[in-house]
Amino acid sequence: xxxxxxxxxxxxxxxxxxxxxxxxxxxxxxxxxxxxxxxxxxxxxxxxxxxxxxxxxxxxxxxxxxxxxxxxxxxxxxxxxxxxxxxxxxxxxxxxxxxxxxxxxxxxxxxxxxxxxxxxxxxxxxxxxxxxxxxxxxxxxxxxxxxxxxxxxxxxxxxxxxxxxxxxxxxxxxxxxxxxxxxxxxxxxxxxxxxxxxxxxxxxxxxxxxxxxxxxxxxxxxxxxxxxxxxxxxxxxxxxxxxxxxxxxxxxxxxxxxxxxxxxxxxxxxxxxxxxxxxxxxxxxxxxxxxxxxxxxxxxxxxxxxxxxxxxxxxxxxxxxxxxxxxxxxxxxx
Length: 334
Known about the structure:
- The structure is a single chain.
- By secondary structure, the protein is an all-alpha fold.
- The protein has twelve helices and no strands.
- The protein is globular, with a radius of gyration of 20 Å.
- The two termini are 23 Å apart.
């Protein structure tokens, strides 16, 4: 129900950008962030709830690759509409995307089955706000090291999302359609890495994936900051896309594996909130770096910091044990 309701809200609130301005437009953008968070958390929770653990890595990879494919189409369509008709027209894509996803969603999304609420049962579905806060606190106490690690990884991963357009503009690509085509390289690599995630996890091992991510981000960010040739900028965007496409499904797998089944929805909700919180610090970190080093060397600085993190990830990979299998899902052969 939450997923379907949020898809409807996604279309209605999203199209409001065609008509709103000033503070109402900012409020609608804030609401879109909340709605997108709910959709992401709900979809991942459904995977944990209904997909057998043997197929979970594959389905999480397909989830990420599918959303990235939609992102590629939407980004290029939005750029075309922006160049042809002005930036407001691109907001018409929101209800179109919502309708495309909603129709099969109504037919295919299973209803979550929860036991009747009795005293002491179903702690993940509390009856009052204080119980909700207690359940969130229990998840944080048990999983805060994982959330802290994901926070730092996502703060790194958001750098290309926020700065690549400015680097391309600095290279003389002022046309929105041309920038979208260049940025699609990264999105295509996200699709590729997400599809390959089950194989990556199988042959590299879960404990080495943070190191792989940071190696890709380090090389991609440094190359992006130093390159003036569009070929190398495209290569950098590809490396960064491979890193992000590996991280996103891996974080979902980690959280679903570590969360107790009765708290799975809370844990996934905190995961998505944590991701957006990490993204939100970028505007506060980058302006001082740009003022001190310039745009390109600010990107290189983040790459160097990612390289320092890579050393820690290599140490973690050499000392950590294999991650336990995720908690079984209900409904699909269990």
